[in-house]
């Protein structure tokens, strides 16, 4: 019996995911990690089983499940030792299209995204010069008859080489020409194959973990005007509405990571004998694991609350941000406890700990860093003065 069988929501989905993930053991991920290669087979298996279409309504061929179910899927993927970061965005990026796209756009793209025929899992927001200050992005889409011409550069555009479409945020009006800095930003669907033949270039970035992330350059790339989502200049609002979903789902992944680390640490502590007794008999070994467990459980409750609010259509900015922060911290505490419990063996590739350790560290920086969440709570929840 697993340590975490009290996991409540969607038990059938959880056990199906566990079964699917068993086909992708540590050695599969270690091999990819060495090559920084994309887990095609894993993503294909999830696609075929319909999990990446969990949030797409049934009328477009998806499963029409709530965010709570998507959170259970991603949590179990991580708890099984796999890496949902390779494809989690295929679940939620389409939310901008679903909530703000026209009927024609939804008909054109959603059924293909649901079937896996098309991947929409690249999200071009971050730029090298603006960083977290999204309204200062410089990539510009200039209207030219029935198309826009895009120039600029994105960085950290993950999965761009494994996506048919990109959701792109660009300025359509300069920042100094709009009343509010959040105005004048627009969202487009970019057809990657077409763009690659017409001035777009993708350059992979090697990172400390295998994340298929890239820089993307736009040099006079034409994008049809019909690919604009919603109203020109209102794109910032559209991406904000998707960010809560993204934060909740990534928080669920962190809870899954924390469970993986805690289980691994607890098992090793029970079996490793030093000085004639299991190391887990020492409270110095037990306590960091117990602490990480408590932090994970607290984060798990916050994730559940945030997801429930999201599904009910309630405001969930506060809860989504706190869930993301608490879960990322819990997964890191669990990673740290797991590595320390394993002593030298924690550093050996074959235990998978060092790989998961590198992977889970990301979530204190992306998709939003802890400082920015604290700043959100200070300003928007506690009503303290805006600091930037
Ligand atoms: C592997 C990876 C994958 C990613 N995938 C994507 C993707 O698919 N699409 C995409 O658009 N982006 C992606 N990102 C970008 C990610 O969202 C950003 O890295 C993140 O938002 C932080 O921005 P930055 O790196 O520019 O840091 P900066 O904004 O330069 O900040 C650097 C540090 O300063 C702190 N800081 C900045 N301003 C303040 C302030 N006012 N108060 C306190 N602290 C502050 C930050 O918290 C951070 O710790 C990815 C990043 C990584 C590393």
Give the tags.
four-stranded mixed sheet, single chain, 3 domains, alpha+beta, Butyryl-CoA Dehydrogenase, subunit A, domain 3, Butyryl-Coa Dehydrogenase, subunit A, domain 1, 13 helices, binds flavin-adenine dinucleotide, Butyryl-CoA Dehydrogenase, subunit A, domain 2, 388 residues
> What is the CATH top level name of the largest domain?
Mainly Alpha
Residues in helix, %: 40-55%
CATH architecture of the largest domain: Up-down Bundle
Order of helices and strands: HHHHHHHEEEEEHEEEHEEHHHH
Tell me what portion of residues adopts beta-strand conformation.
5-15%
Biggest sheet descriptor? 4 strands, mixed
Description of the structure:
The chain is of the alpha+beta class. The protein folds into three domains: 105 residues, Butyryl-Coa Dehydrogenase, subunit A, domain 1 (Orthogonal Bundle); 114 residues, Butyryl-CoA Dehydrogenase, subunit A, domain 2; 145 residues, Up-down Bundle (Butyryl-CoA Dehydrogenase, subunit A, domain 3). 48% of the residues lie in helices and 14% in strands. It contains 13 helices and ten strands. The strands form three sheets. The chain has a four-stranded mixed sheet with strand order 1-4-5-8. Strands 2-3-7-6 form a four-stranded antiparallel sheet. Bound molecules: flavin-adenine dinucleotide. Flavin-adenine dinucleotide binds next to strand 1 and helix 13.
